[in-house]
Amino acid sequence: MVLQKRIMTMNIDKIEGLIKKFDMLPVGMKILCAVSGGRDSVCLLHFLKNRGGNEIICAHFNHRLRGQESNRDEQFVKNLCKSLGIKCFTASGNVLEHAKQSGMSIEEAARDLRYEFLQKTAQEANAGRIATAHNASDNAETVLLNMARGTGLRGVCGIPPVRDNIIRPLLLTQRAEIESYLAENRFDYVEDSSNLSDDYSRNRLRHKVLPAIEETNLLAISNISKMSLSLREDESFLSGLAEEFLEKNLEGDAILAQKLKNAPLPIAYRALKSICDGAGRIHLESILSLCDAKKRTAVDIPGMRVVFEQGRLIFGRNEEIKSIQKQYIEIGKKMLIGSTGLELESEKVKISERINNSFNTFFFNYENICGKIFVASRSSGDKIELFGRNCTKTVKKLFNEACLPLKDREETPILYDDEGVIAIYGFGVAKRCAAAQGDDAIKIEIKRTDGHFNAAEKDG
Questions:
Q1: Which residue, 98, 312, 328, 371, could crosslink 418 as a Cys pair with Cβ 3.0–4.6 Å?
Q2: Prediction pTM value
């Protein structure tokens, strides 16, 4: 069976219905129309101009990817806007260089530069909306591409009718309708030669897959558009429930593992997706598997480390954790402690009054210090009997009780002498060398270089 090309008239009522549903074109608002010179954007420009109710201005970005043809497109748009009495803004950029520097594909780099230009122009021109010419056929291609890549519900929602200040009035309009509108009104446009090539996956879908689907059902593209809008409402509802879940259960950068485990999977996945931007399905499954852990463990996902600890999932940036290398302390001199952002000051003092101990200022009896004092990260097997606690604990157990994340454990300064731990930043001083009134002492104070202390540094 050979599919006969259908003659379709552009359904203005359908377009107006979409505009009204999403309040795309408030009366009196200035609208910036993005125009490449191709059929879709030329159709949109004429439609908006003829519709009335808004001041229309135009923006064209020359990607400089097709040599003289790109320059031809820019000149065409300028001439079109002049004939319509529409103000036209143009710019160009080196897409290839931007792709090279950013690591993006050429298509991504072109889009990035184009939207940067559109947003800047809209702001300078005081335009409240940016209109782009994405249509129902574009949307169907996007849905099929996402399905082929293994998307979730959000991917089959396709192209959004509205995203921030960007509107797409033609999103329910098929490409065949646009062609008929241009032909009926004898509106000229230019053809992008790259659209004819099958080198791009989207073009192969456009030239081969969509016609085959329409042979099965002539309403296929229209039905995909309706499906996308319907599923978008479902996605919005489920995302709303996920945000409510996070508001109730996310405390700082942590959430109770049992709460997440008991949540319906669609809510749990969306909640995690909200926290872990850029995570794929396999990453989300790895995080959920932590909920069944019996001891401290962690998974790394792009840009983030998620740790199961003390019944909680702790979400933190996946930064390189740098231990504090051993640094000997010269009494009377200031020093920075590794790359922690902490500064250490030390001096010899005579304790004439009652000591007001704190978790970041320590007084040591000079005679009870064995050898030299140094600062470093924790070591396996470290123990301390904190002054006033009357019990000896391992440093590991103290950190566990305080629910310190891994990064904080490695970057917590610990003071040692030749016999072992004499103080822990944020916890206190060891009983065996704590100074008393009348002692010759060494005072060591650790503070942030910005002058701010965290919760563990408050006076005890």
A1: 371
A2: 0.63
